[in-house]
Design a protein that fits this description.
By secondary structure, this protein is an alpha+beta fold. The chain has helices at residues 16-24, 50-53, 63-69, 80-95, 117-120, 123-138, 150-159, 173-177, 190-198, 204-208, 212-219, 221-230, 265-276, 329-334, 340-354, and strands at 8-13, 33-35, 47-48, 74-76, 101-105, 108-112, 142-147, 165-167, 251-257, 281-290, 295-298, 301-304, 314-320. The two termini are 28 Å apart. The protein binds magnesium ion.
């Protein structure tokens, strides 16, 4: 395994939106809480507390489905301003631990902790200190994954939840990864999982045992990245460069659910403009119309949705750093004359060519 002798932390805040809401209303603590709107609204769940997750509630699920699964849940409206403020505090704490911090979402970050042993001690001690400082300064808990690469650290933080630390000691990466399900490799979604299962590949170990060329033949460029990931390497687009090299998250995915069905291009545009105010460029927009007949249509793809109720239309907006932006204002403008669905579908087609799924 050709992993560098680095120490990488992946810090993931525990049930972030719910935990922030608990700061403002401590009576929510320990209870099944659903953030995102009220039980009879047509929006989707932004976050669920661990107590609510036990009933099968998860993010992106319709609020009404969550209410059916967990009638005793407390439904809370989301407060983006609160989450942004808390995220800034989290960022501050992380920066006090390492000069190389990369926030990858509002509640997740990678820290390059290489060379900080004299200051913070060995990795587990440093993680313990970070837990304590995070709690003292933000009143929030986090989970910490530690490894020689971002990929290993990311997989570890999932295993550390909630409020734990998971460390893969250098040299043990292959042993750690081998028995894991292919789905646990960051970036492997349902589509890739099905493809791999079709090839008889079930575990990360199975991937690691294959020739890179075999994976490339079946999955293209993404197959090569997958081969690297199965070895624990930071392979693939999102792991390019060093930690902290970029000055912000590479992408933010944001979903907006309208209160009512809309075919109003001005309304859709105004949603996009609001997202642009964050300083990132709007790059891809996906318009998801969910039909009563249980189908979800995303661009040209159509898949069955295992939900018996009417789903609201959603607008998914992916934002990329300006340097990565490929959609020009002119391009946006030229599409205004088209119908909202055609406009959004065109964007989605482009996005689907760039992502493995
Ligand atoms: Mg989190």
């Amino acid at each position: 395994m050709s992993l560098p002798s680095k120490t990488v932390f992946h810090v993931d805040m525990d049930a972030f939106f719910v935990s922030v809401e608990e700061l403002f209303d401590p009576s929510l603590k320990g209870k099944p809480v659903v953030v995102g709107g009220q039980r009879d609204e047509r929006g989707v769940v932004s976050a669920a507390s661990y107590a609510a997750r036990k009933f099968g509630v998860h993010s992106a699920m319709p609020l009404r489905t969550a209410a059916k699964l967990c009638p005793q849940a407390i439904f809370v409206n989301g407060h983006p301003d609160r989450y942004r403020d808390c995220s800034a505090k989290v960022h501050e704490v992380l920066q006090s631990f390492s000069p190389q911090v990369e926030m990858v979402s509002i509640d997740e970050a990678y820290l390059d902790m290489t060379g900080t042993e004299r200051l913070h001690g060995p990795p587990l001690l440093a993680a313990d200190k970070l837990h304590q400082r995070m709690k003292a300064q933000t009143q929030l808990n986090c989970s910490i994954g530690i490894g020689r690469s971002r990929l290993i650290a990311k997989v570890c933080s999932g295993k550390a939840k909630p409020h734990g630390v998971f460390y893969v000691v250098p040299g043990q990466e292959a042993k750690f990864l081998a028995p894991l399900d292919v789905r646990e490799i960051p970036g492997v979604g349902k589509v890739t999982e099905q493809k791999l299962h079709g090839l008889g590949i079930l575990t990360v170990g199975d991937v690691a045992n294959l020739d890179d060329s075999f994976l490339e033949q079946h999955l293209g460029k993404w197959g090569l990245a997958l081969a690297g990931k199965a070895r624990g390497e930071d392979a693939g687009a999102w792991f390019e460069g060093e930690i902290g090299e970029s000055d912000g998250p590479k992408s933010i995915s944001h979903e907006h659910t309208y209160d009512r069905d809309t075919a109003n291009i001005a309304q859709i545009e105004s949603t996009r403009v609001r997202e642009r105010a964050s300083g990132l460029h709007n790059w891809t927009t996906k318009f998801i119309r969910r039909y009563t007949a249980c189908f979800t249509q995303t661009g040209v793809r159509e898949r069955k949705f295992d939900c018996s109720e009417c789903m609201p239309p959603r607008l998914t907006i992916n934002l990329l750093r300006p340097a990565c932006s490929r959609t020009t204002a002119a391009e946006n403008g030229s599409r205004r004359s088209q119908s909202p669905i055609a406009f959004a579908t065109g964007m989605a087609n482009r996005a689907s060519r760039l992502a493995p799924e």
